[in-house]
Design a protein that fits this description.
It is a single chain. The chain is of the alpha+beta class. The protein has 2 domains: 8-45, no CATH class; 55-132, no CATH class. Helices cover 51% and strands 17% of the residues. It has 7 helices and 5 strands; from the N terminus they run H-E-E-E-H-E-H-H-H-E-H-H. The strands form 2 sheets. A 3-stranded antiparallel sheet has the order 1-2-3, with no helix packed on it. The protein has a two-stranded antiparallel ribbon with strand order 4-5. Helix 3 (58-69) crosses helix 7. The longest helix is centred in the C-terminal third of the chain and has 13 residues, at 87-99. It is elongated, with a radius of gyration of 18 Å. The chain starts with 7 loop residues before the first helix and ends with a helix.
Length: 135
């Protein structure tokens, strides 16, 4: 039997993951595992799969963007923000872009930027996964 290393963020929130035919849960810092019936596994394998990484730091996002699209991407993002018609929405987008500690995959601004860059949901999930590895 393998060992599981508890990550600090795991104890902060409830999580559930399936690995092979095992379901793993961490609920309030307590680790649980059990076998998943094959019928349930077949349904899970059919998808859709939620992203494994749903949140990254602003540093990770911006670094990934520059490494993937080049330094001019920063100007493109600024342009996307400047095209927001509503002044309040524009100001909020600017604050989020400049000040958010973390970027959430399902946040409306993340979705708006991804659409402007032509990314679909699978590409966004892959981007978050890749960016999460940047230290």
């Amino acid at each position: 039997m393998g060992t599981v290393t508890m990550q600090p963020e795991w104890v902060a929130k409830d999580i559930a993951r399936v690995v092979g035919s095992k379901q793993f849960h961490v609920i309030e810092g307590v680790f649980f595992s059990y076998d998943v019936p094959q019928e349930s596994m077949d349904k899970r394998l059919a998808g859709p799969w939620p992203p494994l990484v749903d949140e990254i730091s602003r540093y990770q996002l911006k670094t990934w963007l520059v490494l993937t699209y080049g330094p001019t991407i920063m100007d493109q993002i600024t342009g996307i923000i400047s095209e927001i018609a509503d002044p309040t929405e524009k100001a909020l987008a600017q604050i989020a872009w400049e000040s958010a500690a973390v970027v959430q995959i399902a946040h409306p601004l993340t979705v708006q930027f991804a659409e402007a860059l032509g990314l679909d949901s699978e590409q966004i999930a892959a981007a978050f996964e890749a960016a999460s590895k940047i230290v």
